[in-house]
Each structure stands twice: as structure tokens, then as C-alpha cells.
Specification:
Layout (H helix, E strand, L loop, with lengths): L7 E6 L5 E5 H16 L5 H10 L7 H10 L16 H12 L4 H9 L8 H10 L15 H10 L1 H4 L7 H24 L1 H5 L7 H18 L4 H16 L6 E5 L6 H15 L5 E5 L2 H15 L4 E4 L18 H17 L4 E5 H8 L4 H4 L9 E5 L9 H15 L2 E6 L8 E3 L6 E3 L4 E3 L7 H4 L3 E9 L2 H8 L4 E5 L3 H10 L5 E5 L5 H17 L5 E5 L13 E5 L3 H8 L11 E7 L9 H11 L10 H13 L9 H5 L7 H7 L8 E4 L5 H11 L3 H7 L3 E4 L1 H10 L2 E5 L2 E4 L5 E2 L3 E2 L4 H8 L1
Parallel strand pairs: 3-8, 3-11, 4-6, 4-7, 5-6, 7-8, 12-17, 13-15, 13-16, 14-15, 16-17, 18-21
Antiparallel strand pairs: 1-2, 9-10, 18-19, 20-21, 22-23
Helix pairs in contact: 1-2, 1-9, 2-5, 2-9, 4-5, 5-9, 11-13, 12-13, 20-21, 24-25
Length: 751
Amino acid sequence: MKTEKQVISHLYQDDRGEWIIQTNEEHQKGVAELAAAFAGQFGYSSWGYSLGLLHDKGKERNAFQQYIRKANGLPVTDNKIYKEHNHAFVGGILARELMGMSVLNLLTNQIISHHSGLHDYSDIETILQEKQLPEEIDRKSIVLDKVQLIKELSEAPLAKQKIDLKHFHHLSRMLFSCLVDADRLDTEHFMNVESWQKRGCASTLAELLPELEMYMKDLQEKASDTDVNRIRRQILQQCIKMSTGEKGFYSLTVPTGGGKTLSSLLWAMKHAVHNGMSRIIIAIPYTSIIVQTAAQLKRIFGEENVLEHHSSFNPDEIQDENLNGKTRQEIIALREKAKLATENWDYPIIVTTNVQLFESMFSNKPSVCRKLHNLANSVILLDEAQTLPTDFLQPIVDGMKAYQEMFGVSVLFTTASQPVLSGLIEGSNPRVSFKGIDRITEIIPKDFVLHDKLRRVRLEIDDAGSTYDEIAGRLVQFEKVLCIVNTRKDAKELYDRLPEEGVKLHLSRMMCPEHICETINRIKELLRSNDAPVIRVIATQLVEAGVDMDFPVVFRQEAGLDSVLQAAGRCNREGKLAQGKTFVFSLSAENRKPYGSMAAANNARLNLPATSDWFAPSVMEAYFKQLYSRTETFDRKTISHYLYKPNELCFEKASDAFKLIEDDGVNLIVNWGNSMDLVAELKTSGCTYSLMKQLAKYTVGIRQSDFKKLVQYGAVKEILEGIYLLSDREQYDKDTGVRLDNHWMEEILMI
């Protein structure tokens, strides 16, 4: 039988029952060519090719060939009993033999780890010591171009531009990404050609740019000739002018209402086309903004050109009405394309979260790292840059520098309150400091004085402590008012104190994402229609950035200056009034003082002169310097310890430590919308990716202590292992979300 002599990598049976085989030689060559193309984006094509040639050399093992034949019902001639059939270690040993230990984190680790995830250096050394190369491995078939490998290494930015070796781990991870994606794509091409054909996108940024320009022209023609719109046009023209600059770091600092979102996108697209760049990645801190931004971009460029990648997005929900009359088959194809693209970001425009972007850059996992090579030669647009966490600021800033210098990335920081990210950044301990970005080009010159031209709000600050009742009493003096507080508890306490007149609404993370979305849409509709003379909204910070609300009056509980100005951005947003009012208050009379990072931010604001022009860029710069000077560390999880020594890289430990959001809470599925139908499907069908993505819209994350309290009430049911349902429907309030009080006890006491 022909198959008995072939070294099999993959196989399947066709419709006629015949075995279709991909030989190991075919697979390795296919992976090598793909990985070379990916790595060629940043000057390492030979290294990519070598990774592909060696990664599955271990499949020549008799043990693996016996395993794959037995697993598929093929006859075997080798009846020897093997302990295991692992294969990845073989290519790693060969890489070391051919190139020495110097390639431990350029070839060896990537090959050994391409299924399991990048190992720490000590674990790799142990594997190399304990494993032996099987005799049946054909060494003669391996041809590595050592001269070319060394030449590429010496001519690459890391060596040629004398880039700091602390960035080396990003190169290791990027090569790993090239191998993982190439391996999975070639396998898919053989095993599931139908799926493989759905990948990719025909449109380039150069082809999409006219769509955006036409959209912007139409928008401007329809816009009324007001002072605000004239300023927006001025900002837009400046973005166009500055888009032809070379690759590097840029910032766009525009006060709320200046048209920052579309202006930054036009800059990014024109900059990318001018510099021959591949894609635009828009990273946003809040899901609510992502949904809003992605929807707008899909209207401009089409669903097929914009990938929305975050926890609440489910490609299965792409609907007919959003697709301009496409056929059923086309809709299904788009859904499949979107699902596939979340694996490797092979779209011209990606809208994602800061968490997704930065945790991927520091991950060791194959499925997470797979997309990284598609960041090379891209524009990364960081929206609301002031939200970058100070606890991880050192590795994040260093990472962005590495991607710019080594992989040809441009980064645009956009915000109404630009943080200080250049020069020497010093903390409260003189030893705790790091060098920021050498050069950030500001797109808007200081002489534009936008903070004066777009000033539409009077800010009043009262740092004396107030009670809940006092603040509620002040709120009822206004018919349309938004009040933003720091915690879920504060939101609930103030909401309960508002009278039942007109419309009062609550927004917090005690509500599931779908509930929040519906409430935000209702608020916007009420504000547009003027149907409700009285609209009072109590919200947490989730409305501060990017949520397009326009209230004449806004209250903000004490916080950092960046948060205060974000709140002010929800006030008189469209300039309909001569001047809106934003009041900053304290709840210290209730002993409700800011804590943690918010306390540090608030103290930084309090240390600025009370007579400051709070909207001036110079004051914002002084604020961030104050904030940083109070910071004990910019690398709380010591990522630098794990990753900044090229010979002692600990990829797994760093990956476990780099979590922008501490996941110590519990997610509860709540009764909202069609969540119970999805729960019923979950019970019968079990967990699937699509189903869990849909359920994410109906979950609320709560603290462990609150979870235990709800369990004691008997309000929680574990429907599958580790998946919990808020089974008592009365514990989810239609206005405020998850209740933490015992409603059964309340009812007994009322009798």
C-alpha cells in the first residue's frame, strides 16, 4: 500500500472513501513558505522559512507515524510499543545542533512550543537535556542557509539600529506568531480548503480610502456652518496635512466634540497608504465605544472590511438588514470570515480592546500570539490613551517602542487629555523610573488653542464632603442631568434617593452589557426627541469616554483630572447652550472616598492650584506629572524581570502575570432578553464558542464576596462546571441590575 511508505503529516478520507495524504515534506515546505512571507514583513524571511522546515521534523518519528496510522485505521508494520508520540521537541534539538544555543529563542523555543506555548528558558533547557534525537530522523534532508540567517540577523533593526536588547522577547514572540499562523493555515488549506478560501480580504487600505473621503465630504456638506463645525473642519485638514509623515509616534489631542474619531481615522488611513502599510488596528478601552465605533466603520467600509474583536461580539449575529441586500449565502460567508479573522486579524481594519491588544503582545499562548505578525507594518490607533494603566506603563510603553522600531509600526495616541509618555517618567521612588518615547509628533499645534475654542462648559469644584441626600437634593434642581460616580454602590444609593418623576435611569456594571446598551440607546433617544421633560441619569464611569450623550448639566464625583474632563465632555457636547455646567463633588461625608489608583489620581488633581485653567493642555501635563510622581511602580508585576534579559526569558511566567484586568470575580448569567433560551441550549448542547459569545452579553461580573452572599441567599445555580446562573429572577432588577440585598428577607420584614 502506497501510504505505508509515506511520512504522513495530515490525512482525511474523501467522498469515495479514499485516503488523501499530505506528506510531512509537503506540509513543512508549505509552512516554511508562509512563515517566510510573514516574517519578511520585518526582515526575517529566512528565519521564518527555517522555522517551517524544522517545526514538524519530529513527525518522522516511528512513534508518531504509528500513532497517526492507528488513529485513522490505517495498517501499521511497526508493532513496537512507544511511551509517547510527541514530535515538537525534535525540530528544537535539530535547530540547536545546526545553529547552536544562540538560537534558543529564535528557533528552538518556537519549534518546541508551537503547540503548547512558549516555554521559560529553564524549561527549554531541561527539555533539550532530557530528550534525545530519534535515530530514524533524516538529518540529511535539512538545508539551512546559515549565511543568510546570520546576514538577516545583522541587518535587522535589532542589530543595525542598536535597539535595546530588552526588546528581544518581542522578536521571539513575533517569529513564534509567524510559525503558529503558517502551521495552522497550511493545515487548514489541506484539511478544510472551503474554510481556507474564506480567509483574507480582497480590499486594501488604498482601495478603502476613497470610501472614507467620500463619507467625510458628504458629512461636511450636510453640516451646518457653526463655530464648532468650522473648528472640526480645521482639525480634519490638519490631520490630512500631517498624514504624510514617516512612521513613528503621533498624538492627536482634541477636546471632546472636536470630531476626534473620524479625523484620527482619516489620518491613520492616509498615513498607512502613504507609507505602504497593511492595516489599521484601533484599540479602545471600553466595549461600549468599540460597538459604537465598529458600527460606524462598517457603515462606511462594509461589514467585510472591518473586524470587531471583543468579548461581546458574536459574528453569528451579523444580520441581513445590515448588509444591503446580500444573499443568504453571502451572509453566511461573512459570518465565517469574521470568525476566522478573529484568529489572526487578517482584515484591513480591526477594532479591538486595549486588553486584547496588549495582553496578546505579552502572551505565550499559540492561539493568542497567532495574530501578532499581522501587527507588523500597521497603524495602531490607541483611543483614550489616558486610560493606559500606570501599573503596567513600563512594559506597555517599552512594547510600543519595540513594535515601532523593529516591526515598522506607527502609533497614534488620541485623547482629549493626553498623558505624558515622553522623556524620563519618574515615580515616587527615585529608583522607579523609565525612559518614555523619545519623540511624539503632536498633530494639532499649540497655537490652535482648541481648549479655548471648544470650551462649552463651566467647571465648578467643591471638595468639601457631601451626603447622598445632599447630592440627590442638588440633582432634583435640574430637569436634565447626568451624575457620574465612582462605584456601583454609590450609583445605587443615589438612584434610590431620586424621586419617581419623569424618567430616572441607572447605568452600572451591575447590569449586563445588553441591558447597558439598551439603556444608553434609550437615553440618547429621549435626549434627541425631547419627549421627556425630566431625565435624570445616575451612572458609573462607563459613560465617561466615547458614549455620545449631551446633557446641559453634569455632576461628577471627585476623581482624577482626566476623568473629570471626560465627564465634562458629556455636558453641552454639541454646543447648543452658551455654556453648560459641570459640578465636581465629594461624598467623604458618607466615608465614600476614592481608593487605589483612583485615590492617587484624585490626589494628583487636588495638588494642582485651585485657580488652574482645568481645560488647558499645560495643566493636564502638570496633572500627569503629579500622578506619576505618586506612583510606586510602573511595573507592578515585574514583567521586566521575566522578559528583559535575553538569555533568561520567562515567557510563561510573564504571560500569567500580564493581566490588565484582574480576573478574581465570578461571571453570572442573568435573566435578560433571550438569555434563558441560550441557557437552555447550553444545557442540551454544551459549551460552544458561538454560544458563549452570545451569553457574554447577558453576564455580570461580581466580586467573590458578593457571589458568596448570593449563593447563601440560594439565588445562584451552577448549570455547568464553572458556569453560573442568577436563577432567582427577583435578584435582577429591571432598572439597576443585580441586587445584592436579600429580597426574600425584605419581603418577610414587610409582612
